[in-house]
Amino acid sequence: MIPGPFTYHRPGSVADALKLLAELGDEARPLAGGHSLIPMMKLRLASPEHLIDLHGITALKGVVREGDRVVVRAMTTQHELLGSDVIASILPILKETSLLIADPQIRYCGTLGGNVANGDPGNDMPALMQLLNADFLIEGPDGQRTVAARDFYQGAYFTALEPGEILTAISIPGPASGHGYAYEKLKRKVGDYATAAAGVVMTMEGGIVTSCSIGLTNLADTPLWAQEAGEAVVGTSLDDAALKRAADAAIAIMSPAADGRGPVEYRKHVGGIMVQRALKRAAARAA
Amino acid sequence: MNDMTPTREQREARLEGMGCKRKRVEDVRFTQGKGQYVDDVKLPGMLHGDFVRSPHPHARIVSINTEKALQVPGVLAVLTAETLKTVNLAWMPTLAGDVQMVLADGKVLFQNQEVAFVVATDRYAADDGINAVEVEYEPLPALVDPFTSMNDDAPVLREDLAGKTEGAHGPRRHHNHIFEWTVGDRDLTDAAFRKADVTIKEMISYHRTHPSPLETCQCVCSFDKIRGELTIYGTFQAPHVIRTVVALIAKIPEHKIHVIAPDIGGGFGNKVGAYPGYICAAVASIVTGKPVKWVEDRIENLTATSFARDYHMTTEIAATNDGKVTGLRVHVLADHGAFDACADPSKWPAGFFNIVTGSYDFPVAHLSVDGVYTNKAPGGVAYRCSFRVTEAAYCIERGMDILAQKLGMDPAELRLKNFVKAEQFPYNSALGWEYDSGDYHTAMRQMMEKVDYAGLRREQAEKREAFKRGETREVMGIGISFFTEIVGAGPSKNCDILGIAMFDSCEIRLHPTGAGIARVGSKSQGQGHETTWAQIIATEIGIPSDDIMIEEGNTDTAPYGLGTYGSRSTPVAGAAIAMAARKIRAKAQMIAAYKLEVHEDDLEWDIDGFRVKGLPEKYLGMKDICWIAYNSPPPGMEPGLEAVSYYDPPNMTYPFGAYLCVMDIDVDTGVYKVKRFYALDDCGTRINPMIIDGQVHGGLTEAFAIAMGQEIHYDENGNVTTGSLMDFFMPTAVETPVWETDFTVTPSPHHPIGAKGVGESPNVGGVPAFSNAVNDAFSFLGTTHIQMPHDYWRNWKVAKELGVVG
C-alpha cells in the first residue's frame, strides 16, 4: 500500500502538460482524480516515474453548451456535475449516475475525464458515454482529434488514447427533450463497483418507443453499447415480451468475470434484470 | 433544609453514576482528531519495518537473497529466519500451545506469510527494499479444504511436527491433525438419539471472517542498550500479557519491559494475539539500536493477522414428537490454518464452545471438536464474542430452527418449550457450565409482544400466498435468535493464559480535594471505559464521575490485568473496580465515624457521604472525608485514601437476549432488505444505557456484515480473494439496518454490582437472527439449511436451485 518513488509535476496549461508528456515519455502518467491510478500505484501494479497532475489547468474545468451538444471539460468532478444546471436540464442521466458513484468524498475528487479515460471496466460513465454517443476530444503532440466513445475502449485499461495524449473534453449530443432515462446499478455497498449496471435513454410517442439506446457497465472488460437490445424495444409498448427480448439481446453481448460479486451466470442474469428495470423506469419518465 | 440544599435527585444526578447516560469523556479527543494512537508515536531516530510476504500458499523456500535490498537507499537491515535463529526467535509460542514461524523457516504455509523483515529509514524505503529482496520458491500443493485435511494423501504442512503424535491438547491422529476435544457423555447422548421420536442432522458452517478493526495491528519497539530496557508501544488488547510473554521468550527481566497501549482504534479480538511484526520490530530495535515502527496495512491485516470462525459444525438434535429436546450431539471440524494461534484460554482449544446447549434444557449432550491445519492464515480469534461462543450460538440457534421446521412447530414456540426455566438457576448444563442467572421466558415473551410476532407471521403467510400467485417476487423471512453468552473469563479454576490466571485489577487513589484517579488492568479499544469505570466508582463512593480519571494500558502504572476481550472487562475488571471502591468506602466510614463521634455501625451510606442513623442532619460528605483522610485522620490511622483490588471471579456471567429480524429477499436479484431488527439484551445491571445501545448497534452491524457477506475467502489454489475492503464486506451507514433495542434486567448474583457484560452479545445473537431470517424466507419453498454468508448472488443461487427464477 506504499507507492514507489515518482516525481510530481503540476503544469498550468494543456500545452505544458503535453510537453511534459512528450519529454518524459512512457514513464509519465497524467493524474486526474486519481481513483484508478493511485490505488494501482499503492499496490505497485503501476509505477510511473512521473505524475503530471492536471488540477492546475483551469481550461480543463467546466460544463458548457455548444449548440445542441453539452461539452464537459475533462477535469470536471462528479460533484460539479451534480451541481450543474446544464446537466440537470439536458442530461439528467449524468446526474442520476453521478449520485451512484461511490460517496461524496470520492465525488469531490473523481472527474468525468478520468472516469472515461482510464478504461477501468468498473467505471460507470463510459457506458453512459457510449449510449449517449459522446465524442472524446483528445489533444496530443500532433494536435487535436476526436474519438467516438463507442470506438474508444479496446480492453480493460486499454483505450484508443495514444502515449503522449490527453483526453481534454467530452462532447455529448443532448438527447431529445422529453426523453426518458434511467441508470440501474446493482452493487453490494456504497463505494463498490457495479455487480451489473444498465443505462437507458429513450423517447416515446403515444406509448410506443420511438428510440432507445442502452449501455452496460462492468459486464465485460469494456463498457458495452447494447445496440440490438435498444433496437429490440423500438416500436413496442415495452410489453413483457419486448423487455425480455431486450434483456436477452443485452445478455448475449455480456462477458463478465466471476468475482466476489458473483459467478458469471449471476452477473449476466442480473445484468438482464438491470436492463429491464432501467427500461421500465425510463419509460415512466418519457414525456 | 433551605432551598439551596440539593435534593436527593440532584445529588444523585451530580454524580453521573451507574444507570446514567453519561456522555463518553474520551469522545472529546476522538471527535477532534486528538486521539494518540500507535502510529502517532514518533521517537527520535525511529526506523520503519515492513514485510516481504509469500505470494504462495504452500512452497519450499529455495533461497532468499537480500543483497540488492541492502543496496536500496535507506535500507539498513533485512531480517530472515536465519537472523532470528541467532537469537532463538525464528519461531514463537502461540497462545494455543502450538509454535508459529516468525519468519518463514524453510517453507511458507499460507499466502502473505511473513518471509523477511526490511528495516529502513522510512516506510517508503522499506517498501522499496521489499521489492528488491529476491526469494526463490518451489511451490507445493496447497491444502485448502479442511474436509480433506486428514485424507491419507493430504500434503504434509507442518514438517516441524513430524513424528509428534501428542499435541498441546492430547493425541494427534494425522499429520494435519491438531487436537480432538470432547465434552459430555457420549453413551447417554447416543442412547437419547436411539430413543428419540424425531432427530435432525445438518452440517452448519460458520465461514472464515475477520475482525478488521479500523486501526490495524502496529507497534513501536525501542530497546535501550545502556539500561537494558525494552519499551513497546502497541495495539494491545492485553498489554500485561504481552509484557509477560516478551519476558518469557526474549529473556529480558519483566521490570525492564515497558508495554504501553495508547488509544486503540478497535480490536474485536484482532489485537489479543502476538504477531511476527512485534517480534521483528523488537529484534530490529535490538540489532540497530534504534526505535523501530511496524504498521500493518489493510491487506496485511485482512490476510495475515487473526482470522475468526471457520467452524464446520455437524449438528444433531434429538426430540420428542411434541417438541421437547432430549439430546444434542455436535461434531466440529475446526480449520485453524497453518499454525494453531487461537486466542483462547490455554486449556480451552475450542474456547467455550461447550456453551452450545444454548438457552435450552438439554438433559444430555456430547461435543467433539477436531482442529486441523490448512494452508491458510493462522488465528481463530474471538471476533467480538467470547471464545467460540458466536459459533456455538449460531450452531444451536440454526439447529433449533431446523428442528422446528421438521416438527412443523413455530420456532418461537419450540424455544419457549425448551428454555431453562427461571427457577432452575443456577443451572448446570449438560456440557459442564453453571449458568448463574436468567429469565428467558420473560425476555422471549417481551420480544414477541413488542414486535407483534403473531402479526408478523400472519403477514408472512399472506406474502407467501401472494408469491405463489405470482403477485410479488419477494419472499419474507422472520429470524429468531435467543442466545446465551458466557463471558467474563475467567475464574482461575477454569481459565488461564499461558499459566496466568485470568483475574483483573483496579487501583483507586483519591486526592485531598476529593478527586482521584483509578488505574485498571483492562484496556479500552473504544468500549468507553474512561466513562463507565468512573460511573461505577461514582456510585460506590459518591465522588462525581467527572472527578475520577481512568487510566489504562501502561504496564508501569496500571495494576496487572488480563486485558479487554471476550466481554470480560465489566464482569472481571468492573468487579475489581467496585471492590476497590468498597475498600475506600470502608476506610471513609471509619473516618466519618470518628469525626461524627459515633460508632461505624451507626452510620448509613447516603449517595455521597455518611449520615448518622436517626440524625439526618449529622452528615459528612466524601469530598470532606478525602481532605480529612490526608490531613487529620483519626489517631492511629495511616493517612491517605487508596485501595487496590484484584478480582478472581467465582463464575462466568451469562448475558442473554432475544433478537428478531424481518427480511424481504428479491428472488430475481437475491437483494435483501432488512425491514426490522429488534434486539432485547439482558446484561444484568446496566452501567450506562447509552453506551450499551452503542455497543449493541456496533455488534449488530458486525453481525449483519458477517451473516450477509463478510468472509475471508480462498480460491481452490489457496489464494485469498478478499484481501481488501473492495472485496471484504464492510457495510457503511447506508447498508446498515435501523436497530430497535430493548432490555430486561436479571442481575448476576455473584458479581458485586450484578453486571454481566454486553459488548459481544449483539454479534453472538445477531448472526443467527439474520441467518434464520434468510432460511425462514426460503423454507416454504423446500430448503432446510442455507449456508452463510447470505450475499446477493448466493440468495439468487438458492432461488435458482429452487426453480423460482428463470
Shape category of chain B? globular
Instruction: Give the name of the CATH architecture of the largest domain in chain B.
Output: 2-Layer Sandwich
The CATH homologous superfamily of the largest domain in chain B is termed: Aldehyde oxidase/xanthine dehydrogenase, molybdopterin binding domain
Low-pLDDT segments, ≥5 res of chain A: none
Largest sheet of chain B: 7 strands, mixed
Per DSSP E runs of 2 or more residues, the count of β-strands of chain B stands at: 35
Low-confidence parts of chain B lasting 5 or more residues at pLDDT below 50? none
Quick check: average pLDDT of chain A? Answer: 96
Task: State the CATH topology of the largest domain in chain A.
Answer: Uridine Diphospho-n-acetylenolpyruvylglucosamine Reductase, domain 3
**Distance linking N and C termini of chain A:** 50 Å
Count of helical regions of chain B? 19
Count of individual helical segments of chain A = 12
Instruction: Tell me, rounded to a whole number, the average pLDDT of chain B.
Output: 97
CATH topology of the largest domain in chain B: Aldehyde Oxidoreductase, domain 4
Can you tell me the overall shape of chain A? globular
Q: Summarize the largest interface: chains and residue counts.
A: A-B, 25 and 32 residues
What is the structural class of chain A? Answer: alpha+beta
Write structural notes for this entry.
The complex is a heterodimer of chains A (about 290) and B (about 800). Chain A is of the alpha+beta class and about 290 residues long. Chain A has helices at about 15-25, 35-40, 80, 85-90, 90-100, 105-110, 110-115, 125-130, 150, 225-235, 240-255, 265-285, and strands spanning about 5-10, 30, 50-55, 65, 70-75, 135-140, 145-150, 155, 160, 165-175, 180-185, 195-205, 210-215, 225. Chain A has three domains: about 5-55, Uridine Diphospho-n-acetylenolpyruvylglucosamine Reductase, domain 2; about 60-175, Uridine Diphospho-n-acetylenolpyruvylglucosamine Reductase, domain 3, CATH 3.30.465.10; about 180-285, CO dehydrogenase flavoprotein, C-terminal domain (Enolase-like, domain 1, 2-Layer Sandwich), CATH 3.30.390.50. Chain A is built from twelve helices and 14 strands. In chain A, helix 10 (about 225-235) packs antiparallel against helix 11 (about 240-255) and helix 11 packs across helix 12 (about 265-285). The longest helix of chain A is centred in the last third of the chain and has 22 residues, at about 265-285. The termini of chain A are far apart. Chain B is α+β, with helices and mostly antiparallel strands and about 800 residues long. Chain B has three domains: about 10-35 and about 505-645, Aldehyde Oxidoreductase, domain 4 (2-Layer Sandwich); about 40-140 and about 215-265 and about 270-305, Aldehyde oxidase/xanthine dehydrogenase, a/b hammerhead (Aldehyde Oxidoreductase, domain 3, Alpha-Beta Complex), CATH 3.90.1170.50; about 305-490 and about 650-800, Aldehyde oxidase/xanthine dehydrogenase, molybdopterin binding domain (Aldehyde Oxidoreductase, domain 4, 2-Layer Sandwich), CATH 3.30.365. In chain B, strands 3-7-1-16-13-14-15 form a seven-stranded mixed sheet, sandwiched between helices. The model of chain B has no long low-confidence stretch (mean pLDDT about 95). Classes of the chains: A alpha+beta (about 290), B alpha+beta (about 800). The interface of A and B includes residues 189 and 191 of A.
